[in-house]
Design goal:
By secondary structure, the chain is α/β, with parallel strands linked by helices. The chain contains ten helices and 14 strands. The strands form two sheets. An eight-stranded mixed β-sheet has the order 8-9-10-7-11-12-13-14, covered by helices on one side. The chain is globular, with a radius of gyration of 20 Å.
Length: 308
Amino acid sequence: MKVGCIGLGDIAQKAYLPVLAVRPDVELHLQTRTPATLTAVADALHLPPDRRHADLDALLAQDLDAAFVHAPTAVHPEIVTRLVEAGVPTYVDKPLAYELPDSERLVDLAERLGVPLAVGFNRRFAPVYAQCVEHPRELILLQKNRVGLPEDPRTMILDDFIHVVDTLRFLVPGPVDDVTVRARTEDGLLHHVVLQLAGDGFTALGVMNRLSGSAEEILEISGQDTKRQVLNLADVVDHRGQPTLRRRGDWVPVSRQRGIEQAALSFLDAVRAGTPLSARDALATHELCERVVRAVQEQAGPRPTAAA
């Protein structure tokens, strides 16, 4: 398969290229508008000159079988549109776009043209989270916290909190009939946000604190007098009276631990098999994120105007 990788930032270099570059069935092509980065990454992977592309036109001329988009979110709509219109099955880092109408347009375009489109919600593929679907889930609590990173609400929610939103949607055991959002903003920056999803017999809470003093991701699910904790997508603690700890294997690659390897290979397998792929369910996560953004903005109120 001829596979293009567009955007060669940290997520591409640390998570996706180590998976794609070692596949004997993948002919990897790289594209970025930064010449020094293109040279450095391609040299590290020992790619020949004909697999290095300075612009999207040159990459599309390679008659790609699939493409991975790891460019900045702001340019996703333009790049994904070009790929889909060229008939290239596309996997794009979350989110599809910062604005919901752009995300809706991309999903509609891909479905209308019959082009596979997938969004990189890797936590659905992370083994420790996927196994939680088999556990009782009357109460779900997911925290994804940071140190010293208050941010513009839309940017923070669509670039980061979206993982919490999608993972809650993945884990809830039934339809959601109530959505509640609470947040704290100061000087236009979002400090923390709490999302509650509730349905028949369950409550799910998603929390992000950008001034927590700790970079961490903690999942707790409980029900039927049992509880499971997952710490940083690695260690699992099961509670049935006495806690038992199961640690991540020493030799498990981070990309596999976090579900990135599984998500990428599942996408390629589907493309190879001709299996239809729609981003319609991913769009539902974007719609819920838009609901969170609007709730945060309403709670923050209008920004104060500067004195003349």
